[in-house]
């Protein structure tokens, strides 16, 4: 078993950390914002809370400087203060020298405050972030202690993102037994012949997918002009029941529904024609290689894969089915084991080269951030939870779908120069409404009012038809690299006849 503070795949962490110095203008932080009701607490109270909760965990960040890392942000009042508050979050300067920060945000609205936690992707991936948030923002100390259970005591992590490269090199040079493999890497003793064949077949498929990365890639650029270097947030909130209802009616998964809606948003804002190119781009998706029942951990434990998008399929429901079928193969333990073994053999240079080839064949990267249990501050539950993704320079935008408390938030981190940047979330919702009508409003489960429709609450734009495009070039799974988070998959069933409101489909265990 890998210690919570030990990097399972250090080459992945190192590639992400090295991206800081390549001059491309990557934004490599992932995080989440909690909207709270009531008067804001004192900053000292937030610092004391964070200090108490981090003491439950291994020293991920080395010697803590809570006073320097927990700060305040005040948004000037105005009619669009909520949007401006969210737009400010992915542009904050990292305080101090450590790779994490937490902000108490005032002025985002008339009746509450935000708590925003952010961490460098070289230190945590999406699953690790979700597990960490359960400790930081559990409603009671007892719940936090339960969420903080770790695999075994861990060494201190580097105190900042860039020095982590030297720490990785020093760790590898120590004359000590190598760390044990991550759960998905361990060989199963005494395999039945069928299991061995399945594992061998998964390795062959993975090798074939990786080989496709050496074929000629797409040529059309994603953004039409230079990047602004400033990021905004386009987000929308929907009932989680609507996503599950769409999944049930179309016989696929919640992730398949999200990917189909995302493809509609991509096509609707495409001004360079990249979604219609013959050598079409896919969607990059991270597949977690860790046991989500563990406590928070340091490092990245995922494999990045390329999903082909059936851009020539005009029916969004059928597109959701096809995308869900592509994702389903990565639920196979043999496939995930093959991904983990291939990843464990790669050094930093090979990981970087495969990552660059995969990114060149994808138009967007997305992830799902499911958060179990109630979260909030000082015993009061949050009324709204929004995950915010990183934005590597390879892409003009990068969305994350957050699932918590009966709500789903699709939030795009977007470079401000991207055409249609504010409309991305509205197009995503337009597609979801086509896949399944919104359910009737229900009485809230808590005494707090329902949250507004998201940081960017613009009405959906007028519907657009999607003319057929060239067929996709086929799946290409690759050894992972670059910033990413967790890809979550729901239960699947046989296809149904078409979209209509239906009972929510139960979520299955995510393959990540």
List keywords for this structure.
single chain, 512 residues, alpha+beta, Chloramphenicol Acetyltransferase, 2 domains, four-stranded mixed β-sheet, disordered C terminus
Under CATH at level 1, the class of the largest domain stands as Alpha Beta
CATH architecture assignment of the largest domain: 2-Layer Sandwich
CATH fold group of the largest domain: Chloramphenicol Acetyltransferase
Low-confidence stretches: 151-191, 443-512
CATH homology group of the largest domain: Nonribosomal peptide synthetase, condensation domain
Query: How much is the average pLDDT?
Result: 78
Count every helix, treating DSSP H or I runs of 4 or more residues as helices.
14
Shape: globular
Pattern of helices and strands: HEHHEHEEHHHHEHHEEHHHEEEEEEEHE
Number of strands: 15
The strands making up the biggest β-sheet line up spatially as 2-3-4-1-12
Biggest β-sheet description:
5 strands, mixed
How large, in whole angstroms, is the Cα Rg? 22 Å
- Which bin fits the share of residues in helices? 25-40%
What structural class do you assign from the helix and strand content?
alpha+beta
N-to-C CA distance? 17 Å
């Amino acid at each position: 078993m890998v210690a919570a503070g030990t990097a399972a795949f250090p080459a992945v962490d190192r590639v992400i950390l090295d991206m800081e110095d390549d001059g491309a203008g990557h934004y490599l932080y992932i995080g989440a914002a909690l909207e709270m009701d009531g008067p804001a607490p004192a900053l000292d109270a937030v610092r004391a809370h964070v200090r108490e909760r981090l003491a439950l965990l291994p020293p991920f960040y080395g010697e803590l400087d809570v006073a320097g890392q927990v700060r305040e942000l005040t948004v000037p009042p105005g009619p669009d203060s909520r949007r401006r508050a969210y737009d400010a979050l992915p542009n904050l300067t990292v305080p101090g020298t450590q790779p994490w920060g937490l902000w108490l945000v005032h002025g985002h609205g008339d009746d509450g405050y935000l708590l925003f936690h952010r961490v460098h992707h070289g230190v945590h991936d999406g699953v690790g972030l979700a597990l960490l948030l359960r400790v930081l923002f559990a409603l009671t100390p007892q719940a936090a202690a339960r969420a903080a259970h770790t695999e075994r005591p861990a060494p201190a992590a580097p105190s900042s993102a860039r020095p982590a490269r030297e720490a990785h090199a020093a760790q590898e040079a120590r004359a000590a037994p190598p760390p044990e493999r991550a759960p998905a890497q361990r060989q199963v003793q005494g395999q039945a012949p069928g299991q061995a064949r399945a594992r061998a077949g998964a390795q062959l498929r993975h090798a074939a997918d990786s080989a496709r990365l050496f074929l000629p890639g797409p040529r059309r650029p994603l953004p039409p002009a230079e990047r602004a270097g400033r990021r905004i947030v386009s987000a929308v909130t929907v009932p989680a029941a609507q996503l599950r209802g769409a999944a049930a009616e179309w016989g696929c998964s919640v992730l398949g529904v999200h990917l189909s809606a995302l493809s509609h948003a991509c096509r609707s804002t495409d001004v360079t024609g990249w979604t219609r190119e013959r050598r079409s781009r896919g969607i990059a998706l991270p597949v977690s290689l860790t046991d989500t029942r563990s406590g928070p951990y340091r490092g990245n434990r995922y494999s990045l894969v390329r999903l082909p998008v059936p851009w020539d399929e005009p029916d969004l429901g059928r597109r959701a089915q096809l995308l869900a079928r592509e994702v389903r193969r990565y639920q196979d333990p043999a496939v995930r084991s093959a991904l983990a073994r291939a990843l464990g053999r790669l050094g930093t240079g090979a990981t970087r080269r495969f990552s660059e080839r995969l990114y060149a064949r994808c138009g967007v990267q997305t992830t799902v951030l499911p958060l179990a249990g109630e979260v909030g501050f000082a015993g009061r539950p949050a009324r709204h939870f929004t995950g915010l993704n990183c934005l590597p320079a390879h892409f003009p935008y990068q969305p994350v779908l957050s699932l918590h408390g009966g709500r789903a938030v699709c939030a795009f981190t977007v470079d401000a120069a991207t055409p249609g940047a504010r409309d991305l979330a509205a197009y995503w919702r337009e597609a979801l409404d086509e896949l399944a009508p919104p359910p009737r409003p229900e009485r809230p489960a808590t005494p707090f009012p329902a949250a507004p429709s998201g940081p960017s609450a613009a009405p959906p734009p007028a519907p657009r038809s999607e003319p057929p495009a060239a067929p996709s070039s086929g799946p290409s799974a690759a050894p992972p690299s670059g910033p990413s988070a967790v890809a979550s998959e729901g239960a699947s069933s046989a296809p149904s006849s078409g979209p209509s409101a239906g009972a929510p489909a139960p979520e299955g265990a995510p393959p990540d």
